[in-house]
């Protein structure tokens, strides 16, 4: 994402420059919401709707504006499809085995899917893989060191956020 923002900001085109500024704003909003949600999830094992819902709405509005400025209809469609697919996938997991995920995780991945999907299917795939990899490795480390038991609840939100952030930064 960083190269894309750099290209847009230095393009000389007013529309592209505004799109770059909007992407920077979206990144700042991502950072603020990500830190708040991660801290809350680590402390309370929940992801409050009062943060997730406004974040989703602001993200959708930003992506529509950026799409309008860049004329990238497929990017917006991919973002919407990614958020929906990741959210439905997590909802299915939640319905099959309810203790596996919280509904906050299901809602969170819709927002994260919007961000990742806008940049491409590869970015979405990287976000999903990195999220599970980071969460899994941390859980194994906690088990091996005796800091967790097999039934210990480990909040997944911070790993979803970190995995997506890494995918966005390096895409």
From TrEMBL:
Annotated ranges, domain Prepilin type IV endopeptidase peptidase: 29-139
Annotated Gene3D superfamilies: 1.20.120.1220
Record keywords: Membrane, Transmembrane, Transmembrane helix
Residues spanning the signal sequence: none
Sequence intervals crossing the membrane: 17-40, 52-70, 76-97, 154-170
Cited InterPro entries: Peptidase_A24A_bac, Prepilin_IV_endopep_pep, Prepilin_peptidase/N-MTase
Pfam families, alphabetized: Peptidase_A24 (PF01478)
Family: Belongs to the peptidase A24 family.
Cited PANTHER family: PREPILIN LEADER PEPTIDASE_N-METHYLTRANSFERASE-RELATED (PTHR30487:SF0), TYPE 4 PREPILIN-LIKE PROTEINS LEADER PEPTIDE-PROCESSING ENZYME (PTHR30487)
Protein name: Prepilin type IV endopeptidase peptidase domain-containing protein
Organism field: Nesterenkonia rhizosphaerae
């Amino acid at each position: 994402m960083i190269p894309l923002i750099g290209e847009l900001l230095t393009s000389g085109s007013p529309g592209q420059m505004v799109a770059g500024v909007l992407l920077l704003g979206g990144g700042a909003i991502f950072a603020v919401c990500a830190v708040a949600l991660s801290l809350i999830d680590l402390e309370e094992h929940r992801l409050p709707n009062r943060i997730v819902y406004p974040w989703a709405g602001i993200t959708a509005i930003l992506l529509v504006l950026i799409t309008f400025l860049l004329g990238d209809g497929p990017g917006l469609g991919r973002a919407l499809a990614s958020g929906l697919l990741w959210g439905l996938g997590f909802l299915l997991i939640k319905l099959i085995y309810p203790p596996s995920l919280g509904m906050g995780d299901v809602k969170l991945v819709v927002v994260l899917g919007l961000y990742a999907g806008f940049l491409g299917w590869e970015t979405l795939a990287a976000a999903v893989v990195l999220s599970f990899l980071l969460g899994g490795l941390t859980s194994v480390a906690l088990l091996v060191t005796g800091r967790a038991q097999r039934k210990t609840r480990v909040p997944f939100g911070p790993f979803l956020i970190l995995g997506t952030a890494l995918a966005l930064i390096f895409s």
